[in-house]
Amino acid sequence: MTESQPMQGNSTSTVLGRRLGGELIKLRTAAGLTQTHAAKALTASTTKVAKMERGWVPMRDPDIRALCELYGVVDPGTAGGLLELARIDRERRKAKGWWDAYRPALGIMHEYVTLEQAAKTVRMWQPGFIPGLLQTPEYVRTLRTTPTATMAKYQGPQEDFVAARLARQQRLYDDPPLHLHAVVYESVLRNFPGDTETARGQLDHLVKMAEMPNISLQVYPFSGGPHHALNGSFNVISFAELGAMDVVYAEIPFTQLWVEGGEGATAYTELFEMISGRALDERESVSFLRKLRKEL
């Protein structure tokens, strides 16, 4: 787990780099080998191996194949997953996109957004707000009406923040689009910021978005009972099939927490499945949204 994006000089330890390094450490340890063994296989220094395992440097495909052979990896799916993760990490390190123009507005979410752009599926649990990918401009503006000085520093000018949020949402319309599975707590839908028109517009938008084939939207009702994630939101980001090389992003005020694989990521995945299983199904959720809209 990490709470920030470490930097060392001009080098950056990326989330995907650390995720890949963690898998290689696990394979090396299981094989009973050391970094010295890995260095000899790569004709490199142990310092380079350490940087690779900590996500400081991008990894080349030949190095990954050599390490897989050294560690006795026979499953082509395992090796393929590592190669794919390395490819995405290399692309993310050098990628330039809309997010670079909105660095101040994105703040600490900058790295998360770059990963969301590369992801195939994102599963979100949100107990406090409408998920950012599903927010209307009016909802975003209302949230930003009275920011604290610290919030303003982290998120920049209001209209830049709104523009960044709308640019981020375009990922849902790409070809291929991002697949989103969002579960929202009932309290989020009963505690809208702003006026009634903002609430109506947001509910209408949620119903519309729920009709998209790449979006699954569920409401977790009060009757679902308490669970361990009521005190915070989290996103499970998948770059291949679900469960393969997943990373988890948990948002905390003014900071972030990354869970880069292992038992931690598995625990969040199981938690999401439990939440989704106890939530209203998609059809019931849309009916719930429409009912709330009529009550306003």
Written account of the structure:
- The protein is an alpha/beta fold.
- It has 2 domains: 11-94, lambda repressor-like DNA-binding domains (434 Repressor (Amino-terminal Domain)); 98-295, Endonuclease, Chain A.
- 51% of the residues lie in helices and 13% in strands.
- The protein has helices at residues 15-30, 35-42, 46-53, 61-70, 76-94, 103-106, 110-118, 137-143, 149-155, 158-169, 186-190, 196-210, 262-278, 282-295; strands at 7-8, 11-12, 121-126, 179-185, 215-220, 234-238, 247-252, 255-259.
- A 6-stranded mixed β-sheet has the order 5-4-3-6-7-8, sandwiched between helices. The protein has a two-stranded antiparallel ribbon with strand order 1-2.
- Strand 1 (7-8) and strand 2 form a beta hairpin.
- Residues 1-10 have low confidence and may be disordered.
Record the SSE blueprint.
Blueprint: E1 7-8, E2 11-12, H1 15-30, H2 35-42, H3 46-53, H4 61-70, H5 76-94, H6 103-106, H7 110-118, E3 121-126, H8 137-143, H9 149-155, H10 158-169, E4 179-185, H11 186-190, H12 196-210, E5 215-220, E6 234-238, E7 247-252, E8 255-259, H13 262-278, H14 282-295
Parallel strand pairs: 3-4, 4-5
Antiparallel strand pairs: 1-2, 3-6, 6-7, 7-8
